[in-house]
Design a protein that fits this description.
By secondary structure, the protein is of the alpha/beta class. Helix content is 33%, strand content 22%. It is built from 13 helices and 18 strands. The longest helix has 24 residues. It binds 5'-deoxyadenosine (5AD) and iron/sulfur cluster.
């Protein structure tokens, strides 16, 4: 039986899908080249905005209808929307075969077997406090970059966010388990790893992750669990680059800044969602920092790392956001000098505190604010990139460029896409020095320094 996974949402979902592919393959199922070839299709869903759920629901509808051409095709759901809707999903998609919640991805092969045996409409959802049953990451030979979830769930209760409801409370995986998993990935050729968590710097704050009786002390003297983990991962033979996402200003401690600026494998890039530049809105969002505290964290990171790259998420049209609040966001974005920003229109999520507030910014106004921030960011992106013309960037070569097969593409330490002319002997997974000759808003162009 051939399977295919259709993934929506964040990198954590991408990672969960990889893990599910690995367990299904181990159980004897075969990965299909495309959805068309698959006898089993699993949709890994996201709940963060209504649009994300609409897409997954639309896809499920199409897949169920596709049984006309693919008799007996099995259709399953996993991820955040599965967890949020529970058995309600079977009312919305009556012929769905199975649904699995966020901490139960390990149950999928069992459910698939039951469906093959003739059961229908079966499910398993998690209790937000349970220790997760999520299989390890896995990478096909040849992949050199991998995501590894280190912290599940989220204990922050931002007023707009559904994630704590669907991904449960924070659970940090034991450090030894993570280090062993990444060591195994390096044996498959992985040289870049991205550590994932909703609020990744909270790693190890809620449950113990180091066993001081058996784990050696940190050579760098790090005492905060996250900095200590960064050090341990960076020290693994074969690991050239370590990234992590997403950050929060409260996690940008002196120790973290020291780890980032002194451990050579750690990339000088941070995704630090700001959401708003207005103190009034930040407070209503329950973000736990002020505009000044955010900018202070950015200032400390920049002064320790002159080449530091910063990206963010912003929500426009949160309940009560006035034009003045919005202008505060614009000015904060200028002050912070983001290299890239993902802008989202506020979408009320059922059951969150913000859903009880009036969604009082009109759709047209949300659209306008969204457009303004996007065009501001385009200008800022080009300006930041132009500053890099003439510099030499260390680029992790990924392979041929999608747009032009004669060229190669890779990512810089600051996570920018760099397109360059290949040189003889170049191979994917190697870090090459590239002198930047030209800048576009989302891409840098350059030549390998021989
Ligand atoms: N509406 C719009 N955007 C949201 N995000 C999270 N919840 C919502 C919501 N209800 C955005 C935040 C977060 C990103 C992953 O999605 O900016 O950082
Ligand atoms: Fe979507 Fe958030 Fe779930 Fe990721 S954690 S899939 S962004 S709802």
């Amino acid at each position: 039986m051939k399977f295919f996974l259709h993934t929506y949402g964040c990198q954590m979902n991408v990672r969960d899908s990889e893990a599910v592919s690995a367990v299904l393959s181990a159980a004897g199922y075969v990965a299909a080249e495309s959805e068309q070839d698959a006898d089993l299709v699993i949709v890994n869903s996201c709940s963060v905005r209504a649009k994300a759920e609409d897409k997954a629901l639309g896809k499920l509808g199409l897949l169920c209808a596709s049984r006309r051409d693919h008799p007996g095709r099995l259709v399953g759901l996993m991820g955040c929307m599965a967890q949020r809707l529970g058995n309600e999903i079977f009312k919305r998609v009556p012929t769905l075969d199975f649904s699995v919640g966020t901490r139960r991805a390990g149950a999928i092969p069992r459910l698939v077997e039951r469906v093959i045996a003739g059961e229908r409409g079966i499910s398993e959802f998690s209790d937000p406090n349970e220790v997760p049953d999520v299989p390890e990451a896995h990478t096909e030979d040849g992949g050199f970059s991998a995501f590894v979830t280190i912290l599940l769930g989220c204990n922050r209760r931002c007023a707009y966010c559904i994630v704590p409801d669907v991904r449960g409370c924070e659970y940090s995986r034991p450090a030894r388990e993570i280090v062993a998993e990444i060591a195994a990935l390096t044996r498959h050729g992985v040289c870049e790893v991205t550590l994932l968590g909703q609020s990744v710097m909270n790693y190890g704050r809620m449950n113990p992750v180091w066993d001081d009786a058996i784990d050696p002390p940190s050579p760098g003297g790090y005492r905060e669990p996250f900095a200590r983990l960064l050090e341990a991962v960076a020290a693994l033979p074969g690991i050239l680059r370590v990234r992590f996402t997403s950050g929060h200003p409260s996690g940008c401690t002196a120790e973290l800044v020291r780890a980032m600026s002194t451990i050579p494998q750690i990339c000088h890039h941070l995704h630090l969602p700001v959401q708003s530049g207005s103190d009034r809105i930040l407070k209503a969002m329950r973000r736990g920092y002020t505009r000044e505290q955010y900018l202070d964290a950015v200032g400390r990171l920049r002064s320790a790392m002159p080449d530091f790259a910063l990206t963010t998420d912003v929500i426009v049209g949160f309940p009560g956001e006035t034009v003045e609040d919005f202008e505060q966001t614009r000015s904060l974005m200028d002050a912070a000098g983001f290299d890239n920003a993902f802008i989202f229109k506020y979408s009320p999520r059922p059951g969150t505190p913000a859903a009880a507030m009036e969604d009082d910014v009109s759709e047209t106004e949300k659209m306008r604010r969204n457009q303004v921030l996007l065009s501001d960011q385009d200008l800022r992106g080009v300006r930041n990139n132009e500053l890099l013309v003439g510099t030499v960037q260390q680029v992790l070569a990924e392979g041929r460029s999608l747009r032009n097969a004669k060229r190669w593409a890779g990512r810089s330490d600051g996570n920018k896409i760099v397109v360059f002319e290949p040189v003889p002997g170049i191979r994917a997974g190697a870090i090459v020095p590239v002198r930047i000759t030209r800048a576009a808003p989302q891409t840098l162009y350059g030549e390998v320094v021989q």
